[in-house]
Amino acid sequence: MKIKTIKRSSDDYVPVKSTQESQLPRNLNPELHPFERAREYTKALNATKLERMFAQPFVGQFGHGHRDGVYMIAKNYNNLNKLASASGDGVIKYWNMSTRQEYASFRAHYGLVTGLCVTPESLSKNKNENFMLSCGDDKTVKLWSVNNDDFSNVRSDDEVTTQGLIKTFDGEHAFQGLDHHRSKPTFVTGGAQIQLWSTERAKPLSNLSWGADNVTTVKFNQNETDILASTGSDNSIVLYDLRTNSPTQKIVQTMRTNSICWNPMEAFNFVIANEDHNAYYYDMRNMSRALNVFKDHVAAVMDVDFSPTGDEIVTGSYDKTIRIYKTNQGHSREIYHTKRMQHVFQVKYSMDSKYIMSGSDDGNVRMWRSKAWERSNVKSTRERNKLEYDEKLKDRFRHMPEIRRISKHRYVPIVIKKAQEIKNIELNSMKRREMNERRTAKDKPFVPQRKQQIVGTVFKYDEKRRRRNIDDEEEDVDSD
Amino acid sequence: MAKKSKSKSRSKSSKRALNALEIAERELEGSASDDNNETYNPRRNGTVVNLLKKSERRGNNYSDDESDIASDDSFEDEELDSDEAFGPGDDVDLLGSKLSQTARDKKKLGKLGSTDEIDVDNLSDDGYTSIEEGELMSLSEIWDMDSKRTPAPAASVVSKQSNTEEESDDEGDEIKFQDSDIESSEGESGSEESSSEESDADSESEDPFDEISDNDEDVELKTITSNLMKDTAKFTSKRLATYGTGEENEYILPSVQENEGTQKLSLSDMMNIVDDKQITRKATLIQGQNEATAIPLPQRIQQRNERKAAYEISKDEVNRWSDAVKQNRRAEHLSFPLNQKVEHQEASVFTIPVNENTASALQDKVNAVLEESNLMDPEKNTTFEDLDTAKMTPEEMKKRTVEMRLMRELMFREERKARRIKKIKSKAYHRIKKKEIQRNRELAGVSDESDTDLDIARAKERMTLKHKTNSKWAKDMTKHGMTNDAETREEMEEMLRQGERLKAKIQDRNSDEEDERKGLSDIEAEEVDDTKDANMKDRLGKTGVMNMAFMKNAEAREREANLQNISNLRAFENGGELLDSDEEPEKEALDENVQLNKGRRIYAPINLVTKKEAKEADKILKAEVSIDNSTNLANRLMKKSSKINNQDKKSDENDDSEGKSKEPENPWLVGSDDEDISSKNIKRSTKVSVIDKDSSKEAKRTQKIDKKLAKQNKKNSKESNNDDGDILLDSESGNKLNIVDPYGGSDEDLGDGFAFKQQDVIADAFAGDNVVAEFVNEKKRVAEDDDDKEEDVTLPGWGDWAGSGTQQRKKRFIKKVKGVVQKDKRKDKRLQNVIINEKVNKKNIKYQSSAVPFPFENKEQYERSLRMPLGQQWTSRKSHQNLIKPRIMTKPGEVIDPLKAPFK
């Protein structure tokens, strides 16, 4: 027989230090804690409401912005708080993200800056040295050293500066798009041709062109560093491999692609921003179909960027909004907009996946939280636990009607709302018409949504293998 | 026409969908300024983008550009525009793809050249899906074919050179080649140039889907070459005739066979001309392998093959990541940055150097100075000489080692012994051992138990009340007749023994505890010993108190009593009943008195009381035993049978083991236990028993008895029986339905008893219940309850005039109360046997998911995901922490690098 006595020593519950939280004795007897699901549901509901209350996505804008629209933003892959942006008048600004002030501002090109990238840290001698590559419509690629002292006496943006300019590469045509290799001192430029350059040489190393059309953007893979992808004005996406020094695969879509981003965690997947209001997620091993289609925008998607964690993408659109998608979902989880923000041309995730930078037509570079309700302050263990618990509860009960309604509710500009309505009506009518047609024409082939945008691929994929791959992918998606 | 309109409307709606934003803006702003649309965007409109192909793009119907341009106009105008902008039927052009562009060009060309449009249509319809690798024919193949058909005029030595020539001439104009001697001479020098030119031309003319249009080109090429071949067939003969007539020089070889132009020029023919022997010797070496090297594929096709190969390679390369990617996808938690660098603490001004040897120059100097001035304490290292052992003499040393060895040996033995003892499982052994240790301790003067231990033991005794049979548990046990159970009995005995011990302790009788544990045989042996002792005593002498007469008498009495007790116990142990203590009450009383008082008789009321109590206890015990026996079916049956034929009485009485085996035959217990039944081959429900050949003797016997009873009853009641013999229902023998196996052997009188049909029984049981009608009524009532209702809310007299001559107003106020569902809209309207409850609890809807959400496949799965609560109230702290751990964790202020290759 057990003897139960009430014993309460002050040592157990009175904290030793003043900073320590007093321990709360708790009784795990289930009789004292009834209705667990009901209580957890209520907690989840409250957490969802609080999330919407705390949702303040906009952090602020960088300095006073540009004079012209911001058409290029380049992030520093090795540094959290540095960002470069370029505008339509040829001015490049290098920003300190923590203070949101500029390190440097100079006019780099005559006319539009069409490509910008910060060179990798491994190529500079010490950590604080920064180099930057820019290209423009004036048929030049320029290599800059952007240290603070280089631009201490540059005050006017009226003339093209030579300060900080290390090297100029002259090309035969206007450039379009620029990206630097992750580790080697080589870079690729687009334009009338796609060319591979070395920083040591004045002339391009090789010409990778396939077909005669313009190349609008180029992007290196960050994992398999010798692979790159480009988009062309002929609505094509071309893959290249620098090891074999040749283009490898090409697909053509119904509309032009505006931007590409490779998944930093999955070497073979990339996402593209398309003019047809959608972003598409592709596997470079099998491009006969998209892995996923990200819908919801009501105008062309201008830019897309992956979160460094590889589970989310951010898109900026011509409809003046930014949307955030999970890679395994088709619809956005978040939409950002402000009254003054015009067409968004650039969106970039910060390297810690906490913030999003956007550049828009109105000449401002804006900074947003990637999770609108999250705050970056230091939290006590208890607070952190509470937040994590809330997150899990929200996730668990997210299918409940009330919670879903609250968590999905967003105010969007009336223009967007209206456009959504129009688009829905038209899409539905098209769908209906197709169904009617199918009723009479039984042999009409059914094209899945993930293939509709593809006009064709150069190298065909084995039907059997493709099916297997699809199964694999679907399994993966499900497992997520 | 209808088709056209359909496609037009589709293109219109797709256009509207794509331009949704612009349309929305226009509709919303209306009168307001259209400034947003006016903003000219160089990037967006793509004019700046395409510097090289500006002019080309202008003609391109790019939808967005178009809409931008059109956006200045009114909405309706734009619509008109869009309709007119592209001709009917070519919706594909909307998207301005390169393919359609080329197709259009082709079309134009076709129209100009008034060629058949079928070809072009084919192209546009098929796209490039219809092209197959096999259908394509490389240029070289065509040329090969050509060379096979037409007699090649050129010698094989020249063929290589000429081949490059052939390639460089894109259309392969044979005529030109063959008569242009100068050009062929240029072959070597100009080959590089031409190839570079060619590549340029190639890259220029190259189309993204040039491979696709190959088909058509090939077709054209074939026709051209075939045409040419016809021509050349004529030409060659003509020309070769005049070929060798010219002067022989390094470019022109003499024709050997002037008559037969078809014959080939062989190497040997040429060798004949050469005079130099050495050269011919060398040349003969070549003779063996005079085949022409394979003609390289046309560059375009070669490039395509290379690309394909490169694509395969890069796919394979990239495939190496798939494992790592999959692993990350499936990981429950990912903490970024994934593979964090290990940070080594680098030496700096603030870090203290760990290595002492690296002393600075200053330190060295200071040390030197200190040493010079004898201020340094000379720190010696401990050497062997400094150790204690070194100071000892060898004898001492030896002695010490022996000592040490002994100690170690003893310790080892002790350890082994302890291990062995620990292994012994016997409780008796441990008890003895414990006692021994205790005794040793007492001898050593060590208090055997601490006070607290004693206290605890006492408290335990007090709390557990292990020493009495009147505890609740013990009472329960006796009440429910569980005393039969060996275990419980043992436990109760243990209790009593404990009580005895306790009593002894309380009375401070220093009885040896070992007595308690002795078996009967021990006691007997002791008794024998005692007699021996007595004999010994007799022999020893006749003096002393113990030899006095009354002492002897007392002793004898005691012995007698003991013997009596032993015999009683023996009897009990051998299965006999407890001897009735009533039989010899005086003796017992005497016994008791003697035992307690050592020869002195005391008549105390307490003694009587205790005796009474003991009697009562005995009674109770007997009653219990009788109850137990009665519960035994076998016993009961035996009793019954004994009434009828007095036999077999002895065997079953008080036989525990047999009783146990029969216990499950209790009809009230057997009924539910199917397995037991089947194993025993006796099927028994609570009231049905089936007996066949294999059933045990006893069962058969009981069956017989029952039958006899039935017979008697039958005689009494004189009721007829006419049912089939297999199923019998014996109403009077305890309502037992006996299903008797017809093959049951010696059993007779199968036609006994009377039986009912099952259905009749059920019908009887539910007589008077009109279930169906009740159900119908209930359904009707529910339907009415759920239906809309009308309520009359007129207040009599309200709003009326009172008094005589006033007219009663007819107006009535009727309120309609909406019910759950209207009568004729019920779901169970046509279902006769069902009532569907259509009341919806609106408060519950809030907590119901309308459908099973996506990743889950069925309801159960989803519910399972919700089952385990996460909160701290319902789980332990650790599992709570695990449950709430987010899948993706990032460290603030850390750059998250892309995935590193795990295979590099």
From TrEMBL, chain A:
- In this chain the WD repeats are located at 63-105, 106-154, 208-250, 294-335, 337-368
Which PROSITE patterns has this protein been placed in? WD_REPEATS_2, WD_REPEATS_REGION
**Keyword set includes Transport:** yes
Q: Which InterPro entries match?
A: Nup159/Nup146_N, Sof1, WD40/YVTN_repeat-like_dom_sf, WD40_PAC1, WD40_repeat_dom_sf, WD40_rpt, WD_repeat_DCAF13/WDSOF1
Map out region (Disordered) in residue numbers. Answer: 1-28
Where does the Nucleoporin Nup159/Nup146 N-terminal domain lie? 212-335
Kindly state which keywords UniProt assigns to this record, in alphabetical order.
Nucleus, Repeat, Ribonucleoprotein, Transport, WD repeat
A Pfam family of the record is Sof1
Signal peptide as annotated in the record = none
The UniProt family comment states: Belongs to the WD repeat DCAF13/WDSOF1 family.
Tell me the protein's name: rRNA-processing protein sof1
Give the species.
Maudiozyma exigua (Yeast)
- Recall the taxonomic lineage recorded for the source organism: Eukaryota, Fungi, Dikarya, Ascomycota, Saccharomycotina
State the gene name recorded for this protein: SOF1
TrEMBL record, chain B:
Compositionally biased intervals (Basic residues): 1-15
Q: Where mainly found?
A: nucleus
Q: Where is the composition biased (Acidic residues)?
A: 63-84, 164-173, 180-219, 784-793
User: PANTHER family recorded for this chain?
Assistant: U3 SMALL NUCLEOLAR RNA-ASSOCIATED PROTEIN 14, U3 SMALL NUCLEOLAR RNA-ASSOCIATED PROTEIN 14 HOMOLOG A
Where does this protein have compositionally biased stretches of type Basic and acidic residues? 503-521, 646-665, 690-709
> Cellular component per GO?
small-subunit processome
**Which Pfam families would you find in this protein's record?**
Utp14
Q: Where is the composition biased (Polar residues)?
A: 38-48
Where, subcellularly, is it found?
A: Nucleus, Nucleolus
The protein in question is named U3 small nucleolar RNA-associated protein 14
Q: Which keywords accompany this UniProt record?
A: Nucleus, Phosphoprotein
